[in-house]
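Narrative summary of target 7.
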Amino acid sequence: MPQWLTSLLAALVGAGVGSIGAVLVADWRKRRSETSERREALVQRYLFQLQNSVECLWYRVENLTRGDGRLVMRDEYFETTTLYALGPVLAIERLFALEGVYPQLAAHYPDLGEFLRKHRVEYALGDDFYQYDRLALAEAAMELGGDRFRASTYLEFRRRYESKDSGEGEWLAPARKAIESISAKRPEVFLDHLEKVAIRIANETNIPSGLKSRPGTWRPSSPSR
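Modeled conformation, tokenized:
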């Protein structure tokens, strides 16, 4: 084979290999970028919202059970604000089910997804707070924005709850009883559950948590990934 033909074939093969390599590298970078974007979307839309709501609920229960918060609250204020402290947590957990978040977590945050599925806050509310009463509070703390649901703001929840025509005050009577039961019977167990959930999210996503800096705060038994 002439030298010129050998050189031409070598150049063509080299160019082909280089082109294939460039395509593979570009595809790998694209998939990596898409994975990073999906993880970030999960953090921004769901995980940060859940962590923040769980921490707010922790501080409310801690104030009611370890502090003097209940002594200075009017009954109406206590009822509305404490229901709202619990409502968004249940609402976000409800969104995890409605919007298929658990399978997404299984793909991008597998350990965290499994933990959150097994340690849902609603499971720590006690057997007296029945499933559909929990759903009622969860959905009372949700709003439809465009084609997606989100957790209500405090003013949105308060307007609906205090409206004489909504009937939500009557529907949420079991939720009021559940909150009083938690405060009276098992506050430490419930606070510990909330703490574990908030800190596990913080450890997995690097979202700062006020609970994480507290002395004696729970840590997972194995390093997070």
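The chain has a mean pLDDT of 79.
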